[in-house]
Amino acid sequence: MLRSVELFSGAGGMAMGATLAGFRPEAVIEWDKRACDTVRENQNRQNPLVADWPLHEMDVRQFDFSDILGEIDLLAGGPPCQPFSLGGKHKANSDNRDMFPTTINIVRQLHPKSFLIENVKGLTRCSFSNYLQYTILQLTFPCLTIVDNESWIEHLARLEKEKTSGRSDEFTYDVVYRVVNAADYGVPQCRERVFIVGFRHDLGIRWAFPKPTHSLESLLHSQLISGEYWDRHEISSSQRAKINLKPKVDVERIKFLHQTTNDKPWLTVRDGLLGLTDPCDDRSSIVFNNHDYQPGAQIYVGHTGSHLDWPAKTLKAGNHGVPGGENMLVTSSGRARYFTVRESARIQTFPDTYVFPGSWTESMRQLGNAVPVVLAKTMAASIAEKLIETKFNKLLKN
């Protein structure tokens, strides 16, 4: 069994994906009580994905990692994104919510075989480029720490010199990062996030991000050329004519690309919500957990909601309540309404058996902050495969 430690676990999306990929968490750490309440409620219900998690409701900076004995295969987590979010104050390292220094310190303490870190796409903006490079180099050389009276820019220069020297040992990591769109991996949502992956250098692992399994071109082909998408959802020609997609595409190019790829179509909101009843039906909340209708949705400039036959917009947590445009659905009749908690959980690929006991606003906040379970599983499984392969090869040599 591969062993993991989960930081900033929130409602459990990343940790659940890692569990599905074969990792057993030795610690799941989250400071927010309401997020922990969500995990605890599912543990009380004996949800097999989380039932045995050793959950710790506390600040990761206060956790005693010396209590974790033995080697850790994966350190995973998503440090708070507000310092780098497009919707935040953009303070980066001057924001006291920046948990990258803490994450690097934990890498230094645990010295895991690998790590998987997720954050918002905003981290890659030009204004943060130096700090991102600084973070990557600190993860590469976690033991080369900042010294007294040294600024982070000066520390960056020292790390750059170490990098260009070509020196490496068992206390260094081979680190890569990439902006990943969740829709490319079977999540019914266009959600772009940065993933940072590192392997301990002494393992000699060669790794690349998993190849995408789904594509926009395949979705367009299924909707505009083959009609397979509509047939699958049993939508008649007359019904299709009323649906206003109007994407501007080169049909011949789509045909060519479809012939040269085996990618599955991007999943749409309609795909993601398949089987769920209309929340306006009074029986919906009885059949499905957290599937209550929430009134008050309105369309206005900049808040147009997600189209039923397209991947959802990025679900967001919001700084002041639930964001309207991103957490709203436009039905086939053109009516706008908020996603229910269950629908949002589906879009984030949480299983229907996973419940959210808090209020609608709180549950939507947790879901907006979560890593889609399917995406986390894909990334963690790719890492697990390399770790197991390396362990097997080592046994063969011995």
List the helices and strands and how they pair.
Blueprint: E1 2-7, H1 13-20, E2 23-30, H2 33-44, E3 55-57, E4 74-77, H3 100-110, E5 114-120, H4 129-140, H5 152-165, E6 173-181, E7 192-200, E8 214-215, H6 216-225, H7 228-232, H8 237-241, H9 251-259, E9 264-265, H10 269-272, H11 284-287, E10 306-307, E11 328-330, E12 336-338, H12 341-347, H13 360-369, H14 373-397
Parallel strand pairs: 1-2, 1-4, 2-3, 4-5, 8-9, 10-11
Antiparallel strand pairs: 5-7, 6-7, 11-12
Note down, in words, how this protein is organized.
This protein has 398 residues and is an alpha/beta fold. It has two domains: 2-211 and 371-397, Vaccinia Virus protein VP39 (Rossmann fold), CATH 3.40.50.150; 214-262, no CATH class. The protein has 14 helices and twelve strands. The strands form three sheets. It has a seven-stranded mixed sheet, with helices on both faces. Helix 1 (13-20) packs across helix 14, helix 4 (129-140) packs across helix 5 and helix 6 (216-225) packs across helix 9 (251-259). It is globular. Residues 83-95 have low confidence and may be disordered.
